[in-house]
């Protein structure tokens, strides 16, 4: 089986109604955040050369009880 290219994944995501929410540069390449039709968040990862690495879901970071990292409402600063 051939590796999946970035173009093939982008076409697949579009064909399956995945909505690209954002793009972010990372030390190892780029990450694109998608929202699936089921309402799940998925991250597509690419290396520095633009080669598609894979897709995963974000992992929640445990926090201390009572911690409020995002200000009064918890929606960022």
Principal-axis shape equals: globular
Write the element-wise H/E pattern from the N-terminal end onward: HEEEE
The unreliable regions are none
Put simply, the count of helices is 1
Average pLDDT number: 82
Amino-to-carboxy terminus distance: 45 Å
Question: Overview of this structure, please?
Answer:
The chain is mainly beta. The model has no long low-confidence stretch (mean pLDDT 82). Helix content is 13%, strand content 35%. A four-stranded antiparallel beta sheet has the order 1-2-3-4, with helices on one face. It has a domain at 6-56.
Labels describing this entry:
single chain, 77 residues, mainly beta, four-stranded antiparallel sheet, 1 helix, 35% strand, globular
Walk me through the topology.
Layout: H1 6-15, E1 19-26, E2 29-35, E3 41-47, E4 52-56
Antiparallel strand pairs: 1-2, 2-3, 3-4
Write a brief structural summary.
With 77 residues, the chain is mainly beta.
């Amino acid at each position: 089986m051939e590796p999946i290219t970035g173009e093939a994944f982008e076409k697949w995501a579009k064909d399956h109604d995945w909505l690209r929410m954002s793009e972010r540069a990372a030390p190892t390449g780029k990450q694109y955040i998608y929202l699936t039709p089921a309402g799940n968040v998925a991250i597509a990862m690419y290396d520095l050369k633009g080669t598609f690495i894979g897709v995963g879901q974000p992992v929640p970071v445990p926090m201390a009880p009572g911690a409020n990292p995002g200000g009064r409402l918890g929606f960022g600063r």
